[in-house]
Every structure is written in structure tokens, then in C-alpha cells.
Design goal:
319 residues; mainly alpha; two-stranded antiparallel sheet; 71% helix
Length: 319
């Protein structure tokens, strides 16, 4: 009897965290939790639904009544979309700006993903002097406000780099569509600290035995990275890709500064800012234009959502 009591106590202590975790999971999977989640999702979706309803209502209805009155007196028109997408006036031609946003966003997502994944692998699995200090420096760059780097970076593009009177790098002197390169460079620089931090946390948690077995088989670092690491870090890559895509797609400041506000390079956000009119009363344009602007990010998120939660938890726990 005396020998079984400690054993029972140890067993109870050992199973207590598991039991507590099971209780938490049970509560989160209960009907009440499901109902609360549905209510929160509906409340979160109402503004977007109202934006869509407003975008298909006539101009006079938008300016005189709320979108919820649509259900008592439904009036539908596609003139708002036709005006903002294809009209030749000051409120239209949104389609060309849509292409500009794609030209800015896609490379601005792919470049940080490529560079950050390589850097994260090197910092996690390659031993070299000062590796930890390099990682700390990259992590510290996350606290630098983006606005502090705009002026130095703009000067770098316009005047180049001069050290002790010797020009190390000339000015870029880009015009028209060539200015897209400046926006790609800026977004890549601003995104790399967080991308390296996120991917490093994920890659560093990969099993060491797996890496060692690959080295025993004669695999080099490039082959290990290509055949083992990349397939395993897809959740983290997708999570960062979603964040970066939404950030760049909705950005106005960086694109306006480094690409200018011309028709050849201005993104969708610049045109949306102009659609309000001089007095801010062109609501029918804003509703249609804003809904057009969220279609692509919504598609990207829905197509990658199965990776999203897994990517957010990348590197947070072991096992």
C-alpha cells in the first residue's frame, strides 16, 4: 500500500498537464465556443459585406441612404465598376493601376522570400564566426521605423554612394517603368528582418538527425536546402508571403515615394486616394474601387489559409 501511493501521485502529476490541455481543447470545441466564433466571424465580415452592397447601388442611393436599406428597396447597377475600371475620365482606368500593383507586389514578395530563406538556413545550420551577432543585428532591425529609412534610401537612389569623395555606386537615374526596381528594392529591405526572424525560428527547429543523415549521404548545403528544408518550411513561407503580399498591396507611402504618382508606375492605392474627388463626395467610386482592390488579397489568403495557422506557429514550440 505504501509503495503504490507515491506511484499514484507521480502518475497524477504526470497526467495533469495532459488532462488540463484536454479540458481546454474540449472547451474550445464545444458548441458555445463554436457559436461565439461564428458570431465574431459574422461581425468581422459585416463591413466588407456592406462595402460590396454599396458598390452595386446607384449613386443617388449611396449618398442618401445606408447600405442596409438595400434589402427593403433593392436597386442594382454595375455602372460604378464600369466607371472606375474602364472610364477615360479622372475617376476611371483603374485596370491599368491594378496591373501596376501586381507588378510591384509579386516581385516584392518573391525577393524577400528567396533571400530570407537562404539567410535563415545559413544562420540556423551553418557554423561561422559571428553568426549569433549577425542574427541579433537582423532581429534588432525590426524595431527601426520604416519612415526613418525613407530619406536615406531615396538619397541612395538619387545620388548614389560616395565615400571620402570617391563614388562607390552611381545614382540609379531610373525613369517610368524602371522605377519599379526602386520599389522592389525598398520593400525587400524593409521585409528582410522579419522574414529572416520568422523563417529562422522554423528552420532551426527541424530535426538535427535529418540534417546529419543528409550530410552522411554526401548532400551539400545547397542540396539539403533545396530537397529537405524548402518542402518542410512551406507553412512558414506561405504565412510570411501572405503578410508581405497584404502589406505591399495596401501600401501607399513607399510606392508613392519611390515610384512616383505617374500613370506608368502608380499603384492601385494612389488611384483610390484620388477617387474621393476634391471634396471627398464621390462615394460610389470609392466603394467600387475599394472592393476591386481587396479581391486579389482575398484570393491569395483563401488559397493559402491552410498554411497560415501552421506558419504563424512556426518555431514557437518544439516537437
Amino acid at each position: 500500500m505504501t509503495t503504490t501511493t507515491p506511484t499514484a501521485g507521480v502518475g497524477a502529476q504526470a497526467t495533469e498537464p495532459t488532462t488540463r490541455g484536454a479540458r481546454v481543447r474540449k472547451r474550445l470545441n464545444s458548441r458555445t465556443a463554436t457559436l461565439v466564433s461564428i458570431v465574431i466571424a459574422m461581425l468581422w465580415t459585416i463591413p466588407t459585406f456592406g462595402l460590396f452592397i454599396s458598390s452595386i447601388r446607384p449613386e443617388n442611393e449611396i449618398k442618401t441612404t445606408g447600405w442596409w436599406t438595400f434589402f427593403t428597396d433593392p436597386q442594382i447597377t454595375l455602372e460604378n465598376y464600369q466607371e472606375v475600371l474602364f472610364s477615360r475620365g479622372s475617376s476611371g482606368q483603374l485596370a491599368s493601376y491594378f496591373i501596376n500593383s501586381l507588378a510591384i507586389t509579386i516581385p516584392s514578395v518573391l525577393f524577400p522570400l528567396a533571400f530570407a530563406s537562404l539567410a535563415a538556413y545559413a544562420l540556423a545550420w551553418m557554423n561561422f564566426k559571428g553568426r549569433d551577432w549577425v542574427y541579433i543585428g537582423i532581429f534588432a532591425l525590426q524595431i527601426v521605423p520604416l519612415q526613418m529609412a525613407l530619406v536615406p534610401l531615396l538619397r541612395f537612389f538619387s545620388t548614389g554612394v560616395t565615400v571620402a569623395g570617391v563614388q562607390i555606386m552611381p545614382a540609379w537615374d531610373l525613369v517610368d517603368e524602371q522605377k519599379f526596381a526602386q520599389v522592389w528594392f525598398a520593400h525587400t529591405c524593409f521585409a528582410l528582418p522579419f522574414a529572416v526572424f520568422l523563417l529562422h525560428n522554423f528552420i532551426s527547429q527541424l530535426p538535427g538527425d535529418l540534417m546529419e543523415a543528409a550530410r552522411v549521404d554526401g548532400a551539400t548545403h545547397p542540396k539539403i536546402f533545396r530537397t529537405i528544408v524548402l518542402p518542410l518550411v512551406m507553412p512558414a513561407l506561405a504565412a510570411f508571403g501572405i503578410f508581405q503580399f497584404l502589406w505591399v498591396w495596401n501600401d501607399l507611402l513607399v510606392a508613392l515615394i519611390f515610384a512616383g504618382g505617374g500613370d506608368e508606375t502608380a499603384p492601385l492605392t494612389v488611384r483610390l486616394a484620388e477617387m474621393a474627388g476634391t471634396r471627398g463626395n464621390e462615394w460610389q467610386r470609392l466603394t467600387a474601387g475599394a472592393f476591386v482592390s481587396i479581391v486579389v488579397p482575398l484570393i491569395v489568403f483563401l488559397s493559402l489559409q491552410r498554411f497560415f495557422v501552421r506558419g504563424l506557429l512556426a518555431g514557437s514550440v518544439k516537437g
